[in-house]
Amino acid sequence: MSKTQSNPRERPSETAKKGLRAKSGEETAEISATAPIRAQEFDPHFKHEVSKTHGGEKLKQCFQCGTCTSDCPIARFSDSYRPRTLIRMTLLGLKDRVLTSETLWLCAACFTCTDRCPQDVEVASVIRILRNTAVEKGYMPQIFKELGSSILETGVAYRIPDLRLKKRAQIGLPPLPKGNPEAMTKLAKATGFSKLLKRGEQA
Amino acid sequence: MPMKIRKSESDSQLVIERIHHAKSYGMTVDRSICVGCELCSLVCPREAIAIEKNPKKTGQKAQPPMIDVDENKCHFCGICTAICPYGAVQVVIDGKTIASVVEKESFPQLIREISVDVSKCPANCTECEDACPLDLIKVTQAPDSKITVDVKEEQCPCCGVCEVKCPEGVIRIRKIFTGKLKINQEKCPSGCQDCLDVCPITGALYLSEKDGKVHCNEIFCTYCGVCRIVCPEEGALGLSRSTIRHTPVRSGAWNRALEKLTSTTEMTKELRGKGKERTMEAVRKLLEPRKK
Amino acid sequence: MTAPEKNAKTTPKPTRFLLFLGCAIPYRVSSYEISTRKVLQQLGIELVEMPEYNCCGLPIDPVNHSMTLTLAARNLCLAEQQGLSIIALCPGCAGTLRKVNKKLKENKELKEEINGYLKATGLEFKGTIEAKHVLQLLVEDVGLEKIKASVKTPLTRLKVSEHAGCHVTRPADSVDFENPEDPQALKDLVEATGAEYVEYVDKLACCGAPIAGVNDRIPLQLTKEKLTHIRNAGAHAMVTVCPFCHMMFDTNQPRIERLFNETLRIPVLHYPQLLGLAMGFSPEELALKALRVDATQIVSRISGKEDAS
Amino acid sequence: MTEEKPRIGVFVCHCGLNIAGVIDVKDLTDYARSLPDVFFAKDNRYTCADPGQDEIRKAIKENKLNRVVVAACSPRMHEPTFRKTCAEADLNPFFFEMANIREFSSWCHPSTPEEATEKAKEIVRMAVAKARLLQPLKEIEVPVTNKALVIGGGIAGINSALDLAEMGFKVYLLEKTESIGGHMAQLDKTFPTLDCSICIEGPKMVDVGRHSNIEIISYADLISVSGYVGNFKVKIKKKPRYIIADNCTGCGECRDVCPIEYPNEWDVNMGVRKAISVPFEQAVPLVYSINLDHCIECYKCVDSCGARQAINFDQEPEEIELDVGAIIVATGFDIYMPYDDPLYGYGKYDNVITALEFERLILAAGPTGGKVIRASDGKKPHSVAFIQCVGSRNLKKYEYCSGFCCMYALKNAILLKEKYKEDVEVYVLYMDMRTPFKGYEEFYRRARDLGVTFIRGRASHIIEDSQTKNLNIRAEDMTLGQPIELPAEMVVLCTAAVPKTDAGDLARILSISRDANGFFMESHPKLKPIDTPVDGIFVAGACQAPKDIPYSVSQGSGAAARAATILSKDKWKIEPIVAEVTPELCRNTRVKCGICADRCPYGSIEAIENQPAKVVTAMCHGCGTCVAECPADAIIQKHFTDEQIFAQIEEALKKNPEGKILGLLCNWCCYAGADLAGTSRFEYPPLIRPIRVMCSGRVDRDFVLEAFRRGAGMVMIGACHLPYDCHYISGNLRMKARMDALAPMLEKLGLSPHRFRVEYVSAAEGLKYAELMKEMAEKLDELGPEKIKAENAKLKPILDRMLAKKRPQKAQSSK
């Protein structure tokens, strides 16, 4: 494999942060995760909203045992990412705080927390819901814009260079199927994905 | 329940262990010593020992069978240790080699009567050492020409080969088991010498030049029965044991073992003998206070 | 394993499957594809190319769950048209397709919602096929006995560790394969090649690949720790069955060595490569050269050219 | 049956202003007087007070009344009072009926007095209709055997047995294992006082062994129980010990000569016992037993026993039969052994043990002589971590809190600290530290004071260092919000208390029910915590739910007292509201039916082939499920007959039926919930006409059909919550099965789905009931009378046909 080729998955985290910070103007300046919690931050309905979404049904059963954080491979190496804290903020209704939290994007979706939760809270799915909600509000790390637009244009998440396609033929692998951008666009429109992507790009 | 039962097996040994938090039990079968005879499996009260025949490969010698122990059945009583004439089995409890059944006099020990009168040994003679089919004898001659003959008694099945081979009649052996080994030459398949291949005692079985068949030289036979296990033809090889030399014991477990090893009649014979002893003892006890 | 084997005798297992390559494999990890094709062919599995497939949907799940479900469902619809079940090489793809397949079959409302989105493309999810990961195919459809029988040179001199990847088993109730806390499949498969299986600390931990686009440091640390454990456990090599895990362990290994000043040099094979070697394929046929960490030592160890030291 | 013409007296209560403040009592009384068969009607200020009762008694005598209806509060309140009043006036108490116009009308419809009065009139009319058909009933009396069986010889059972014996009753104490003592005998010290467990339990065990009124039947299994309260027949199988108990002196000489050692389960297999032995030194009865699975039959023991001749290898299992009047179930619990949880490595890592094993370790008489040592190297650990909630509070294992683990972890932590001082570091990883009850919180403080480190966070998994065998516990220290890796040389898992593995078998033998977790169900969680749904059978101790020692002891004594209420009587009275089979109608004589016997939750019906089914009256609890299930309508429930309920339905739906909801409410949950809505003054639209049944299981599908035939707007069945709230074990489940089949059929016939409802309302859910009434009224409004009428008109001919066989019967009796 050639070294010059850059792996989109290895992009430095700065891009991600940039993507996250560039958000629509309506929101106030971002709230530090460690700042004291003010009265106006609470949104008691937020936990109900999340638990009405597919995958968040068991959210309210959380009794804060810390299994998710303890077993989280990322949390072991991160100074800030704590899945339990994200759940806690959601339950408290600290909507803005949790949705603007940079750590929200550190979940690797390995589902260890979900499998091990003694109260059957689908922790990783709750985080996915939070991310989806954050995206609706205009927060989205750069990487997802790239993946998203690649899917719309080629059907797959990574644009495969022609060189690689030629090489496939050389080593006798069957040609890759053509993508169907038309279908992708239709689906993206139907699900509202294209709108989200556009909003992300404008920001 | 918390208790580890382990089993490990290799070509040279079979080890099973039962480990409690504060106590451990182990049983080891030394496969280099074990000849694959049937004795332990016959007497095991838990029927934990199985004999596995080694499939014979064409054109090769027959291999002695292997014994296998069910680690979930064994309760480390030590009966197998006590009965093995070759000393291949050991039970270790908390690091100590022990046979509980012998300790508690629930089972006898085999009596190996081996006497060597070293004073009569001729100098530089190693006939017995060379003759021992199991390599249990070591003859050493000190610089002051004092001769010692070491016999690994605990592994000696008392076949008596050394006794016969000794030119000076220095060694006297009494057998542990007596009995009868009969080869029914009519049924014995010609060309087969599986029994001879596995017999641990050189000379106990031999191939007759006359008829090309295997015959038995009962002088050397230890009646361990490995030949019977490998024999492919039923009824070709008849083995019966009549007596077993053992330390005196009063035990139902031994009576049952005896019955399995020998026969019901032999067992009742021994029981009757014991009955006589018991009567005598009772009489003695009766007389004692009078003496006082 | 006796029960499934018995089943194998009574009901003939399907041998034709649609191959779902996904995005990462054709992009960066063709060695996985090459070796898998070789090995499966040898085991009598026929792979049919999947026309016009699209991304499984997982990469954009954080953005829009509905789009993820719809993308996965479209692939399932395409397979339904062919009447063949899907085999995916990437556990992420397999997991997503399995999960969506299961959820849509069980949840009528969700099915209607997704079918509503699919309508624009003239497709409809019906729920007539299955989706599996190649590991599952190997243990469930091919069977360990057949795999063992296919081994020509048992890799007895080789100590091998593994990292199966989270999505092979997680989340347990939607993937519905084996116990994620005590997985056996890859262990059994490694042992089937005759190699000695090596356990190591934190075997079940994630490699961190999914957040590599958001944060670099953590995935590299995770991978480094796992590789260190594997090295300490005395493994000669490790196997993966996921293109992303493989990129973390293999492609990134030199970088990890540089970054943390460690010497690891642990060859990371795709499991089909390991099995292929045991089946007697040449290193070239299995694209062993494409690995970033040199695996020639492994090959010579297997062939007995290098004395075990 | 004496067919005397009914002479009904109706007494309307003002209940101060409680009723009269809303309902026009004068109007209501006049209305009552106008009803057929009513010969007397009067209103009182307080009917339940002495003057009110006097008036009833007087009226019965003077007017030769043979039926009495009191329109006042809920029958759940004063039915017993007025039954007694009637009896005092020589009227059979079952000629009494109550019309609930307070909880069901004045209290819940205060702002619509006219409608409330109208509803009250209909409720009275329904009551009068039922009263007309009432039959005299006689209370049933059964003799009582004044002996008790206590199942389980743990600390709860020991206390039950001792208390009953002290009261003078003969007690059989059945114990499955070789000795009584239970889990308590396995423990080292007890919290929060740190008494030595066996030192305080031992004397009690000895007392039991010596008590002349107690017979210990140990090493024995319960085979079967038949009969009923006061008259149980119990079969027990004694396992052979191969020792003649009477000859065994417990000297132990046989054990000394025995060569065989096998794992001692009582020691959690940490130690061993001889093939002839007792499980522990303090065993009661002190009778040895031989484990033939391990014995090699060397007969050394026979020799050593000698002239005592206590050993008998030919012993066979023995079956015995006992007659007892009451049974106390005190079978205790099991400890969860977490082999199936790979994350904690139990069974895989040498130095991860359960708390019960730890008890045996730190116990001076235990296999290590009280030394806490590691299995891996026999060395004392320098750090020990206790992990709480292993299996408990985990939806994947056991949902409930096991209750006593926090306390025993504290105890063990304190013992360790006191024993090894600074030489050992003790950690407790917990989610919530639960220390209610006397002296417990102080005990927690003592542990902190001794330097035990408490970490709030659930241990998620454990990793073993393969060389040192030390352990590394992963958790989140939640107070810091950081993941931690805690090193420990030994880990003690405080595992869940779980139901006995054979609890299901026992429940079947005794016909008692189990809760969702598998523990035995009490009759009522608050007011009958010791009773089971089966009269004469009581529960004590941890077989009902995890309990610590003081709680188990109190329950043991409580169960003894409850059992004594039966044993102390010569005769036991049973409510006569039972089921009765009309033999001529029973189809079991012709075909193999037995449906009633199958559906009876108490096994009180016998259906022998070719014979009519028979109800064992003393065992019948009067739920009426069999009555509703009988395909031939051959069973009647006394006091709740089909005719009576049909009559109530008819009266309820005489006027404007399409605007009404006919309710069939179970006495214990929904009726009580409706009462609560009234007492709580939750206002709701006055559309429902409720009919009380003892159990929703009584609700025959014909009731529903009849209600629609008569044009009801809606029919609602109100039951106890599924699956375990039913006071008759499974009546609600039977009703559900029946109605699940009926509902789609009605829908197919054109009934709007909302018009037929099965609702589950508990006695605590007054608010839910009121909300339900509002919601149903809205639906009724939405549908509109025209649509309902049209649907009903379509249904009527079909329902007429379906109910044809019921009607002539009804016509006869309503005459």
Can you describe this structure?
The complex is a heterotetramer of chains A (203), B (292), C (309) and D (815). Chain A has 203 residues and is an all-alpha fold. Chain A has helices at 13-21, 46-52, 67-71, 83-92, 95-100, 112-116, 123-136, 142-154, 162-170, 181-191, 193-202. Chain A has eleven helices and no strands. Chain A is elongated and about 60 Å long. Chain B is an alpha+beta fold and 292 residues long. Chain B is built from nine helices and 15 strands. Chain B has helices spanning 39-43, 79-83, 100-103, 127-131, 161-165, 194-198, 226-230, 252-261, 264-291, and strands at 4-9, 13-19, 24-30, 49-52, 66-69, 89-93, 96-97, 113-116, 137-141, 147-151, 171-174, 177-183, 205-207, 214-216, 237-244. In chain B, strands 1-2-3-6-7 form a five-stranded antiparallel beta sheet, with no helix packed on it. A two-stranded antiparallel ribbon of chain B has the order 4-5. The mean pLDDT of chain B is 89. Chain C has 309 residues and is of the alpha/beta class. Helices cover 49% and strands 9% of the residues of chain C. Chain C is built from 15 helices and eight strands. A four-stranded parallel beta sheet of chain C has the order 2-1-3-4, sandwiched between helices. In chain C, strands 6-5-7-8 form a four-stranded parallel beta sheet, sandwiched between helices. The radius of gyration of chain C is 19 Å and the shape is globular. Chain D has 815 residues and is of the alpha/beta class. Chain D folds into five domains: 1-139, Rossmann fold (3-Layer(aba) Sandwich), CATH 3.40.50; 147-325 and 536-567, FAD/NAD(P)-binding domain (3-Layer(bba) Sandwich); 334-498, FAD/NAD(P)-binding domain, CATH 3.50.50; 579-637, Alpha-Beta Plaits, CATH 3.30.70; 640-815, no CATH class. Chain D has 23 helices and 38 strands. Chain D has a five-stranded parallel beta sheet with strand order 10-7-6-18-29. The radius of gyration of chain D is 32 Å and the shape is elongated. In chain D, 53% of the residues are buried. The chains are: A mainly alpha (203), B alpha+beta (292), C alpha/beta (309), D alpha/beta (815). Chains in contact: A-C, A-D, B-D, C-D. Chains A and C meet through helix 6, helix 7, helix 8, helix 9 and helix 10 of A and helix 2, helix 3, helix 4, helix 6 and helix 11 of C.
